[in-house]
Amino acid sequence: MSHHQLLGVMLGRTTRRCRHDDRVRSLVILLASCVVVSSAATTQEEVFASRFDIVAGAREGAVVHGRLNPRANRNPSAVAGWEFKLDNNTSPFELVNGTGVRDGRGRLFGALRVRAGTAVGPAGTAYDLTASLVESAPPGRTIRAVSFQVLSVAERTELDVVGPRVLAMARSYGRMWGGKRLKGADLEARLAFVEDNAGRLPGGGDLYAWSADQKRTEDGLKDLWVGALEELGGLGYAIAGLGGALDNATRARTKAAIYAATAALADAVPLDVADMYSAEAYLNLADSFKDQRGEGFATHPKLSFGDRTHQWDFAEQIGLACAEVAPEAAAEALQGDSAAIGFFDGMTRLVSDVMFALTTKRRKLGDASGRWADLLDFSTSNGVWSDANLGHRGKTFAVLAWALQDYNRPITYVPYWYDDYDFDSLAKKDSLPIPHNFSLVRSLGSVSGAPSDVVAILAGSFVRPFRIKSSGYLPDGFISHHADKGNDAALNAYGFAWLETNVKVASIVRGTVRGDSLPDAWFQTAAQYLTYTYSKVCFRGHLDFAFVGRSYSSDRLHAFWDASIVPVAATLASDFSARLPGPLLGRVTAVRDAAAGPSPNPAGNTAFWVSNAMVHRAAAGWYMSVRMRSRRAHGNENFDKINKCWHCGSGFLQARVHGDEYDQIRARMDWRALPGVTEEWRRDAMPETKGDMEGAGGNTFAAVASDGELGVAAFENSQHEAETMSYAAAASSNGYFFQSFGAVALGAGVRRVGAGEGAGRSIVTTLDQARWRGNITLQVGAAGAREVIAFDVASGCSRTVSIAAGEVAWLHQGSVGYVVKAPAVAGVSLELRCAGDVDASDPEMRDDAEWGEDRRWDAGSEFYGSDVVFIAALHHGPNPANATYQYAVLPGTTAAADAARQAFALFLPDATNVVRNDQGAQAVVVTGGADGPVVQAAMFEAGAVTLPLGGALGTVLLEASGPCVIQARPKAAHWVFSVAQGDADGSVAYLDVSLNVTGVLTPGSYAYELPGIDTGIAAVDDVQVSESGGRTLLRFGLPHDADAAAYGNRAELFYGAPVTLQVPTVATTTTAATTTTTAVTTTTTTTAATTTTTASPPRPPIDEPPLPPVPCSSAAAASSWSPAAPIVGFCLLMRLVAQGA
User: Fold this and answer.
1) What angle do CA 1084, 1090, 1092 make, to 5 degrees?
2) What's the CA gap between 895 and 505, in Å, rounded?
3) Does residue 704 contact residue 982 with C-beta atoms inside 8 Å?
4) CA 91 to CA 101: how far, in whole Å?
5) Distance CA 814, CA 892 (A)
6) pLDDT tens digit string along 603-641?
7) What global pTM score does this model have?
8) Helices (DSSP H) in 1012-1113: which residue ranges?
9) Measuring CA to CA, which residue among 503, 511, 410 is closest to residue 454?
10) pLDDT by residue (tens digit) across 559-612?
11) Euclidean distance between CA atoms 677 and 1014, whole angstroms
């Protein structure tokens, strides 16, 4: 064969193993790197031998932690004729049994112990050894030689360091023992049963006796499997002493029962395909994957897809049992104890194999519709398990890092977790080439030793997604999990558990070589999301239930700050303070020390643009939030029997002063009329769609803009997309304009679009549904009589009042005021309901004495009545014809006469002027501020609004080239603008906003920073300010499709992000090319990036997006890169490409 032919063969064999990128690497370099690596890294003969340690001074018989592990152990028959020997050994160590030990499946391990008559030297001594893996049969051919070191350590090995932490974690987490509390007589009965039935557990029922065919065909497999696991977990609960200390005899019996039950259950369950077929049927089975470990579980026809993708449901219950007995079992197995050997074999099957078995669909390569996108496309996918279920997996992984009792034993023997696996067999036809060193989990590489495997998985666990509708840590600060229909806001269930578990596992492995290899940026990401996001969405210790995902019915949200946030902050501050820069560490310690926090209340406005949400807080001590939805984001996922949170993404507007406004009342709420939502007020039962999420909206328009102090949010509320989700019946255009006094809420185009319940039910806009905590004050018209409705649970508050066309009404309850202005062309009715007149959507939850604060049922308690509901709603009638509404929410106000007078003046033109409220646009101008008028507008389509700004500006015509939200206001020497494109449309490169004035803003090109949790990230595009024909044009360059490469393929996450910047006024300008203004300093770190801007000469208007920036030096790219930070900028992109990422 000629060298040209050889080159062709090599190319053919390596094309799918390498990722070709002709932008950076030549074909010669590509070929050379692939050939060199593939010739060395895929051999079956490798021996894993990364760490060995033993306590200084250990004497004869003491066992070294860490064993020699042949890679081929994943196929035990491959090592049947192999053994180990030490070469030229002068150390104090020897191989146990002279040639190594074997487990019950025939795997080979090179276990070391201290030889007779010797002792281990002082701490710090390193013993260099060489071992050979040889054939047992003469002449004993050497298969592979491996050099390694045994380290002498002071007092504790790394396993000794990790062990107590794993045990503490497992003991504190009920799922690690299946929630089964075995003690006393129950424990005795269970031990007797196991002893009398060869390790069988009663929960496993007939599973132990099923034939292979029955294990494939019988119903009820999950119940029996999980039932046995939970009972085995109960034995773990007992041996851990959680039910009380055991005497020596009972403990010995419990340990023996764990050994026997683990082995028996592992033999009974169908983990492999061979477990489910007779020998003959298995041989005749045409399945190329049938020999793979875990394939029976991954493809089992009687387990649902959800069962097979939630592997921890079939493993974590025995985590505590495994962790408790592992050290003793390891020592006894080395002595040849068959029961201990059986335990380890069983644990391998029940935990290691199950946890790493992937369904065919989840491991398919080249599938762009996969759960984690195309696993081969590094520009869209972060790899397998890049979602919040790492919070579930992480705890069990941590147990395996300890329970396997071996630094060098891979965490699993499932074959596709090794880098020499034939990944072509998993790839779709015409898929992308398989990159060199490809791994299903990006940060893992090949499994090679449980502790290092766990840390490698952990290193990639702060997933930053590439696109919307993806799981991960979003750039706006939210955490998303179930995102196929749109991003959710999973800040409790899933999301917080993900963050919390990451930090817990990092704390478990701290002080080890592997644990300490996590980069500083990893810990900084954890601290950023904890301090940035949770300090914004928690108020007086309560977590806003609009953002908690599926756990919106949790009765512990009032204690979330103290019970959940503070402990994680304490761990970061105590264990990882050296990893955090000073200012970030200061924020972490402030969170740790703020009981029922955050404290003080972090004032400001934050736009969560990916999640269609906004939070607004005041230093005076109140909180507001709004949650919207679109084709890109949805409301809370539902796992309750009744889908109560159906409307939680439909413009859900909250106002909190005391913190508990929406806490205990959730048991008695009418969830069909949520605050801020415009919808039919139905009386029929809400859908029972357990396991479903509230669908994303049918609308594309949903946008938020913020300058860090004030903000505007708007969306077009349309029905849920899915046809099966027909509970919504109304549509409208809704805007929320957040000001220093609270918020103005506008609605237009209110109409019926669905049949709804019928029966003449009215479409309403709910002002609020909150805790009824005191007298209600109601007044219609400035000259109207004031009515005070006494707080009387027995009598309630039910009544309906009419507000004449153009008239203003004042309502006050629970430290929150509401100002309603009826439309100029028609009156509106305001209905109040309280207490027993509120129709609870979930009667079972209403009557559940176990839900919530127990003392709410005690007439003598301060909590009595904390679940009594108050509702105020505006009626639009059963069939409104493009109705409108206009009201303001004023948190922190009183019912006093002066408050009422101020409230009635609120909607006067010289205070808050609603200048437009229709389906084309909504606009508010607020005057009277120290710096001048505040302009806030929601442009649902391209068009113009007339703004009465007063003063020297007079009346200004504002025009926008497309749908958007806009906020503008003057400061001492500049105007602050915040603009967001309304549809988050990546094809829109810029948005033009023009004003029919000149001589106000300094022409020039202005840079801005991207908003969100990561500060200091310069946008690729800029904002151009120019004057022409008596008009000032602001062209806002937007993140868009052409920016994909410059944003590391994450540009989609910034479509619709607010563009916030300062533009200097002409009066402060000396030379346009050199003028620099000073950034606004706000009271908190907020979403908005009001950047320092430098003007340069204006460019003429452009019809095409600007070119990407010139690539910068590799040194600059290297200095700006961190694995946990969001990937932005062309420098970083080029660095990643050069590295083959």
Assistant:
1) 120
2) 51
3) no
4) 20
5) 9
6) 999 999 999 999 999 999 999 999 999 999 998 988 898
7) 0.89
8) none
9) 410
10) 999 999 999 999 999 999 999 999 999 999 999 999 999 988 899 999 999 999
11) 32
